[in-house]
Design a protein that fits this description.
Radius of gyration: 20 Å
CATH class of the largest domain: Alpha Beta
Strand order of the largest sheet: 2-8-7-6-5-3-4
Bound molecules: pyridoxal-5'-phosphate
Largest sheet: 7 strands, mixed
Number of domains: 2
Number of strands: 12
Order of helices and strands: HEHHEHEHEHEHEEEHHHEHEEEH
CATH superfamily of the largest domain: Type I PLP-dependent aspartate aminotransferase-like (Major domain)
Helix content: 25-40%
CATH topology of the largest domain: Aspartate Aminotransferase, domain 2
Distance between the termini: 47 Å
Shape: globular
CATH architecture of the largest domain: 3-Layer(aba) Sandwich
Length: 362
């Protein structure tokens, strides 16, 4: 009964972790992929008000003009090149539309391994071919490693900085080198910048500043703790955006109306306090773990991706679970299973307990 394309997607490994979690009463949960803070009250007010005022119907497919204008202004300030932008149902919505719009069967998409799971499954779903670029041990998807994997079938490169699951960021120089390489070959970059506000050392490096064939994607989910509101955007070349919008019209239709209104207000709302707090957590976790694990200090997002003892993530995750600590084995995000992901998007109390267990079982 089920279409064969569905066999291209195996149920997310994260789900298996959730099932395990359900068996533990009070897990020390360091597996969460979203902020531990709520949407700020002022932004909620705007959403509530717009619902109460009756702003509850379809919006234009591209998104409401005031949000598009505000996003457009923001991208221009960052000197990111684009002809058009539209509002999506989260960055996830943009990713699906991009793959559907651009990939023919057999077209190759370069994906850094470890990767954000959605890339692999959605490329497969549309009949494309994910080509994994092994970025161990420093998790940097550089121009040099991209170049080694280019073939005449390469259509796109998925770039994610700061990255999930490693937190690793690319520098301005590194994205420029990638742009120089791909510009020459007319290869599209899907630049997933959902963690662009969660950046602790450098400034955000956007490949779209240097490569016109870039789909720059960003979102509100992580920055404002509104993962359930489904709000993001994609900006890029006119001919691609227009096709993506056409498909949005016949699929997502539009992003949630009230969330778009709230999104406009959110863009002027300072989140520095929260980000500073995440930086403090990042420094703290690194200081605690660095003498016990082989671990890269993440420059952004809210994840660490340390190496598991004996490079056996399954055995290590099992050991952690015995201590009621929930972490995610590397093979959920990778073709390898030598590392594990911890999220520091948790209360200090939870982090303290988790770090203690991690030190004890190292
Ligand atoms: N891209 C990356 C790298 C992510 O980690 C996530 C969420 O975990 C998303 C995209 C999805 O974001 P959204 O909620 O905007 O769909």
């Amino acid at each position: 009964m089920i279409a064969s394309r569905m066999s291209q997607i195996d149920s997310s490994g994260i789900r298996k972790v959730f099932d395990l979690a359900a068996k533990i009463k009070n897990p020390v949960n360091l597996s969460i992929g979203q902020p531990d803070f709520d949407v700020p009250g002022e932004i909620k007010e705007v959403a509530i008000e717009s619902i109460e005022k009756g702003f509850n119907h379809y919006t234009p497919t591209q998104g409401i003009p005031e949000l598009r204008d505000r996003l457009s202004q923001d991208l221009k300030e960052k000197q990111i090149q684009f002809d058009e932008l539209f509002v999506t149902s989260g960055v996830s919505g943009g990713i699906l539309l991009a793959f559907m719009t651009l990939l023919n069967p057999g077209d190759e998409v370069l994906i850094a391994d470890p990767y954000f799971v959605m890339y692999k499954h959605l490329v497969n779903l549309v009949g494309g071919k994910p080509v994994f670029v092994d970025t161990y041990p420093d998790f940097k998807m550089t121009a040099e490693c991209i170049e080694k994997h280019l073939t005449p079938k390469t259509k796109m490169v998925a770039l994610n900085t700061p990255a999930n699951p490693t937190g690793v960021t690319l520098s301005e120089e590194e994205v420029k080198e990638i742009a120089d390489l791909l510009k020459e070959k007319n290869i599209v970059v899907l630049s997933d910048e959902i963690y662009d506000q969660f950046i602790y050392d450098d400034k955000q490096a956007s490949v779209g500043r240097y490569h016109p064939l870039t789909l720059t994607m960003g979102g509100f989910s992580k920055t404002y703790g509104m993962t359930g509101w489904r709000l993001g955007y994609t900006a890029g070349p006119k001919e691609i955006i227009q096709e993506m919008v056409k498909l949005q019209q016949f699929s997502f239709v539009c992003a949630p109306s009230f969330a778009q209104k709230a999104g406009v207000a959110a863009m002027d709302f300072p989140m520095n306090g929260k980000i500073d707090d995440y930086k403090r957590k990042r420094d703290w976790v690194y200081d605690e773990l660095k003498d016990h694990y082989n671990v890269t200090k993440p420059g952004g997002a809210f994840y660490f991706f340390p190496e598991a003892p004996d490079q056996d993530a399954d055995a290590f995750v099992k050991k952690a679970l015995e201590r009621e600590l929930l972490i995610i084995p590397g093979n959920v995000f990778s073709e390898k299973n030598s590392h594990f992901r911890i999220s520091f998007s948790a209360s200090d109390e939870t982090l303290k307990k988790g770090l203690q267990i991690l030190k004890e079982i190292s």
